[in-house]
Amino acid sequence: MKDLVSITDLNPDEIQNLIKSAVDLKRGGRKLSLDGRTLALIFEKPSLRTRVSFDVAMSQLGGHTIYLSQAEVGLGEREPIADVARVLSRYVNGIVARTFAHHSVALLAKHASIPVINGLSNEEHPCQILSDLLTIHEKKGKLKGLTVVYIGDANNVANSLLLACSLVGMEFRISSPVGYELQDEILTRAQKLGGQITLTVDPTEAAKDADVLYTDVWTSMGQEAEAEHRRMAFTRYQVNEELLSLAKRDVIFMHPLPAHYGEEIAEGLLESPHSVVFDQAENRLHMQKAIIAKLLV
Ligand code: CP
Ligand code: NVA
User: Fold this and answer.
1) pLDDT at position 175, please?
2) Fewer CB atoms inside 10 A, N or C side of the chain?
3) Which ligand is nearest to the CA of 51?
4) How far is CA 240 from CA 155, 207, 235, 253, 270, in A?
5) Ligand 1 nearest-atom number relative to CA 46
6) How confident is the model at residue 29 (pLDDT cuts 50, 70, 90)?
7) What are the tens digits of pLDDT across the range 182-205?
8) Which residues line ligand 2 (CB under 6 A)?
9) Are residues 114 and 135 in the same domain?
10) Domain range for residue 134?
11) Are 269 and 175 in the same domain?
């Protein structure tokens, strides 16, 4: 495996090994030296967690990052993506790319001779979901057999979560309004992986007996023009105390952040004893180290 473009670039054993490695790195039990290796961070969209966690992970392991915004690189505009990939392959040891089109990160991976890591595309967010699996494992002591319920927009985060659940044997339920459901292509891929999947328009039905209740923004980066329309379509899909009370008593609540309070989550929900959202954010750092260790060392 050279790249991490989709979560399905990993098999279940590789996912388990990444979790083990992240746990070890978090405990300080494993020492790694990147010996001055460099990771380029190409971001077409804003980022706090992904950018900072990769940057800090590299510096704590003895490497460096170079941040390249779309204004600087003009991926596919100033020059073809294939050329950016081939040039960067001569300078650095890996690329993290956050793109609009999923095709852009896939094309970088195809033409680069170095590892390319998807730092979020319109279709997937594999690094987020790997660190979320680490968080679920820490909180629940296992993955297999748990029920993960996702409420809201069937977006990049939902896609990677669905595929990951299908890979590791977790039941996945999703509740989205009509017109914002999972794409058939993703659903078919998940079913082929043996996924146990339930789709429902009723969020209260979905939330029943959940081990993990997960949500994400209604309007993702790049969809800002649709925000008002989406706010209306998603009104019933807010995660609040009432919805949480339908889940198991020890349910954990997860959100990748940034959060839009009053939209997909009620004001104050991150302060609930069920919320693991800031542990989830911290684990981005530990999982990025495990990903770097797997692909760059
Ligand atoms: N969760 C996440 O990817 O956050 P950023 O967009 O801030 O990187
Ligand atoms: N679905 C969100 C995730 C942000 C981390 C977006 O793409 O904007």
Assistant:
1) 98
2) N
3) 1
4) 20, 11, 12, 10, 10
5) 6
6) confident
7) 999 999 999 999 999 999 999 999
8) 120, 155-157, 216-217, 220-221, 256
9) no
10) 128-280
11) yes
